[in-house]
Structure formats: structure tokens, C-alpha cells
Amino acid sequence: MAEGRNQTGAEILLAGVSKHYPKSIALDDVSLQVEPGEFMTFLGPSGSGKTTTLNLIAGFTDLTSGYVEIDGKRMDDVPVHKRDLGIVFQHYALFPHLSVLDNVTFPLRQRKVAKQEAEARARAALLTAGLSGYEDRAPKELSGGQQQRVALARALVFEPKVLLLDEPLGALDKQLRERLQLELRRVHREVGRTFVFVTHDQEEALTLSDRIAVFNNGRIEQVGTSKQLYETPASLFVAGFIGESTKVLSADGRTITVVRPEHGELFARDTEVGAGRPAIPVSIRQAIYLGSGWKYEVVLPDGSTGVVRGPRALDWLSGDEQSAWLSWDPARASVFDAEPGEVADAVAA
Fold it and tell me: What's the longest Cα–Cα distance across the chain?
């Protein structure tokens, strides 16, 4: 978590939390501590348990076992509206017949806040969300990104200690989504609340988060900063889910070495690779110019594909496909043990 931030958020504690259904297990014995004022992201594929966990924190779903604490208080019998949570969904759920200002003042009116104070706080929330001057517009007059920012202002206006965001940018196009990611980071730093954000988009998670909890099959595989997850993944799943990589199967088929694109290096076959560096023969399938550098797609001996990136073009490369050596620094790679079935799945991924 960043230092020097105005932290007014609450701690969230999940202790042995599980959610079982008659024919499936959505969440299995998950424990996690979210620090006050932290931006925590739940990341994982569909069905991994991330949204179920958010719903358990909110109180939308009942626990099978374990417990949730918010700001040091157990939430066992506390209903949703008494948990001091702001909630933003992918669908904005704005009132179409109300102006922007009235939409944002709505939570305050529900809490019997005086009209003048409610309007002042709503205008301040809209200013934080970058929507000052839009108070009198109807939701239908706003773009999708503007509507999402109104929803954010409405969730923040009553000053909850925790803000839950369930894939709030998922319905937006890529360019707008990236712009609002930066806006969301700015808002988080300004208000100092605890943000819990759900997404399946790894790039979004890496951009936004203080820490990320990676979910898989109803469990948390690893919790860490973007740098920790990318550079020191705790499992083969995390290594494959976070960022691009090349997975090299060992000769005995029981370990996989994961090499990040920027840590691999390609050499011509008639070139001697440095001592102490592993190397395998590959075929370069295609070279792609990215502006900031080059990306090479390679085919490994087992038929799987990998990726290598570099700042400069390979001056010895000619033609659409060419044999080469793929080498890497062992100190900058991750090695995992795996059962044969897991190895086959990982290499195919």
C-alpha cells in the first residue's frame, strides 16, 4: 500500500470463508486481510470465486462457514444497508427520471441528510469524479463513461469506509476503459477509502491495484503486488494467468520453467550461447513490430508457442520462419513441479 495517503477506509478480514451449494463449491476456505485505505483487486477467470467473495463481503450472499469482519466488527447478522459500503456495479443503475445531481444526492436523502448539505456533498463528489458542471443533465444525455462516474460519485457521497466495485468498467470500450482506470486511481488516492475491485482483466488489475488476490477454483492462489505476482509467481496458474510467458517443459516432463517475454533472448543457430545459460531450439513463427520494440512468436520442440520481446530487431533474421536458440537467465525464470496432467494443460495454455 502506498505511503502518505489519507487513509479513512476500513480493514476487511475474511476468516476461513466458504460458500457451498448442493452440487458445487463456489468458495472454499478463503482467508484474506485487506488493509485500511488499500486498493485490493480480486482477479481470476469466470467461476473462480472472486465475485462470490465480493458478495459475501457485501452481505448479498450467506456464508456456509467462516466469517467476515469490517472495521473490526463481525458481519454475521448485519444486513447490507448497515455495513457502511458503497457499491458500484458494471451496470450503472442510475435513475433515468432524475438529474445527475439528484441521482448523487439520493443516498443522502435516504439517510435524512438536510437538502442543502446533501447538495453540497453531492457537488463535491461530482467534482472528485470529474463531473462538475453536469449536475442538471439527465443520465441519457451522458456517455457510458460519464454515467459510470455518476455511479461512482453516488457510491462515495455518503462517505462509506469501503467501496466495492464489481467489474465496473467491463461494458466500456478499450480506450475509455483505460482512461477511467487512471481516473479511478486518482479518486482512490484522493478519498483514501478501502477499494475492493473485481475483474477478470489482468492488465486492469496490474494498473489499478496496491495488491491483487488471484482466484482459481474457489481458492486464492496468491496475494501480492503487481511486481510480486509477475516476477515471483507462487504457482504455475499464477505464472500463466498474469502476463505473457513461455513455458519450457523439462526433459523428464515433470517441471516447467516459465520465462517472461523480456527475459528470453533469441540467438541464431550458428551462434554460441553464453556459458551457464540454458537454451532450446525453436522456430520463429513471426516477428511483430510494436513501435516500442519487437515481439517474436516462437514454436518450441513440444509444439507449444512462446513469446520473446526485445527493443531491437534481430538483424540476422530473414524470411517468415527461421530456426533459432531460445535462451534465458535461470535467475530470472520460475520453475514449477507439476503432475503430468497439469503439465499438459499448462503447456497447451
Answer: 79
Backbone angles phi, psi at 182, to 5 degrees: -65, -40
Q: How far is CA 297 from CA 108, 109, 314, 335, 344, in A?
A: 55, 57, 13, 21, 20
Looking only at the bridges linking them, the beta strands covering 162-166 and 194-199 are parallel
CA distance 300 to 323: 10
Please, are residues 211 and 222 in contact by the beta-carbon 8 Å criterion? Answer: no
Question: Which among 250, 203, 256 has a CA at the least distance from the CA of 230?
Answer: 203
Q: Are 191 and 184 in contact (CB under 8 A)?
A: no
Q: In angstroms, what is the C-alpha Rg of the chain?
A: 24
If phi over 0 gives left and psi between -120 and 50 gives alpha, with beta otherwise, what is residue 229? alpha
Kind of pairing between the strands at 219-224 and 65-70: unpaired
Identify which of 304, 285, 288 has the alpha carbon closest to the alpha carbon of residue 246. 304
Q: How far is CA 63 from CA 44, 66, 303, 308, in A?
A: 21, 7, 45, 45
Residue 193, pLDDT above cutoff 60: yes
Rounded to 5 degrees, φ, ψ at 42 are -95, 115
pLDDT digits (tens, 9 = 90+) for 234-253: 999 999 999 999 999 988 88
Grid coordinates representing 46 are 469466470
- Please say whether the beta carbons of 116 and 165 come within 8 A: no
Q: Which residues pair with 335 in a beta bridge?
A: 257
Read off the pLDDT of residues 21-80 as tens digits, 9 standing for 90 and up.
999 999 999 999 999 999 999 999 999 999 999 999 999 999 999 999 999 999 999 999
The helix (run of H) or strand (run of E) holding residue 309 is strand 305-310
- What is d(CA 34, CA 12) in angstroms, rounded to the nearest whole number? 5
Q: What is d(CA 250, CA 169) in angstroms, rounded to the nearest whole number?
A: 40
- Grid look-up 494498473 returns 207
What percent of the chain has pLDDT above 90?
A: 70
Separation CA 108–CA 159 (nearest Å): 10
Q: At what angle do helices 144-156 and 115-128 cross, to 10 degrees?
A: 130
